[in-house]
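Hi support team,

I'm opening this ticket because the web form for multi-chain structure prediction keeps timing out on my end. I have pasted the exact lines I submitted so you can reproduce it. The total is 452 residues across four entries, so I didn't expect it to be a heavy job. Is there a limit I'm missing, or should I split the entries? Thanks in advance, R.K.
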Amino acid sequence: MTIANVSPLEINPATPNVVDPRRRRAPEERPAQILDAAFHEFGERGLAGARLDDIAKRAGVAKGTIYLYFPNKEALFREMVRTTTIAAIESAEQLAEQESHESAETQLRRLSVGWWTFLRSDRFQVVQRLVLAELQHFPDLMQFYADEVVARGRRLIGAIVERGTARGEFRPIVPATAARMLSSLTMMQAIWCDRRQCFPELAGVTDEHIREEILDFYLSALRPIQ
Amino acid sequence: MTIANVSPLEINPATPNVVDPRRRRAPEERPAQILDAAFHEFGERGLAGARLDDIAKRAGVAKGTIYLYFPNKEALFREMVRTTTIAAIESAEQLAEQESHESAETQLRRLSVGWWTFLRSDRFQVVQRLVLAELQHFPDLMQFYADEVVARGRRLIGAIVERGTARGEFRPIVPATAARMLSSLTMMQAIWCDRRQCFPELAGVTDEHIREEILDFYLSALRPIQ
DNA sequence: CACTAAACTGACTGGTCAGTCATTAATACA
DNA sequence: TGTATTAATGACTGACCAGTCAGTTTAGTG
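Hello R.K., no limit was hit. The queue was backed up. Here is the completed structure from your submission:
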């Protein structure tokens, strides 16, 4: 969907290629196509539950083709988690770009909007489910996720909070702890939003409202003591 | 092993039950034995990944025996989630019993200790993983979990917060929102604690310290505005 | 003790699916 | 046009595993 590229071969002056597109040569596109299909199938069924035939069908490719680009199912899974995660971080960091002249509260507010958008996206929901459910069996991927997603996010928040404390906007607090608090509030509730129908209390509330509640709650915990 | 019979005379009348315990009749115990084994196997490998042969072996029972008590793999899974969840709630509610004369802060503090103990137990970690990973395919179980675990917990916290607000201990806040904030802080960080090795920041910190950080942070967000 | 009913067993079956490979199609180049 | 090379296919294989059932063991009863 996102990753699957537009084929440069499609741009054709004379349209001589009326061939079955499935058999057309386009080796550069294959990995992305397959990874995208894998993302959906693994996301839906998990590592053990997903079938390679389904991934192939979704990618518009024969099963054998998958094995031209990935040595086996597990490697495909690993690679899918890696690429999806990387794509996710990049889009999140773009959104969270900060201007240093702003107040810490304003920075936090902007970070909150960007991050929440990302957390509520389909891609994150799937990654999150896989991380929580399957990554215990892949210590290296877990580490990768911890370093590249969690730690990076924490540093971002921690820096803002530290600056806010220094400016007297916030009460004194260990930045790492403060970052962990905001992460947990936001991540957990983003996951719950995805299961809205089960939580009557959330059913009538918009995503945006929840995001604001979280931020207000968080800011009131950081409020300086009189 | 099966064909080579044990002579019934071998059974000493003084110690009558030296029979292979695996073949002793105990139909009342079977479901619990099987469910316990299922808990471990499903918890480790997920619904699709777990093998009934392994569950049987762990339960000390033949595969066929499982089918005397449960119609199929999925039903066993459902039943396992149900019973585990119920056991979990009951143990958690015992811990959280409150005395009405205490201050809201003290009540919250006691609830926090009991709940955290539960959240950090093996049983909860496994249930939580299954809920997040698999329960989307079982809407009825998801609903059951939402009603019996999440909603119950929220009501408990909400009531305490409401009382605290009425007494002027806490600032005015929607009790349901306040409950959701504490739930998300606690649940998410309990899950992270289980993956300690991946988060260098948590590695050197005790569970108890994190629990206190959460509670202090929470209380400071509820602090009345001057 | 003999007989019956209930509990239990584990070899077997049939379906499923990861992974293979002989074959076919497309392209590049002479 | 022919030949070589690379890309892709999908029928096939073998392992695996949920679910079955004919047979075995145990306990209860007269």
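A quick check on our side: Residues 139-166 of chain B form the longest helix (28 residues). Let us know if the file doesn't open in your viewer.
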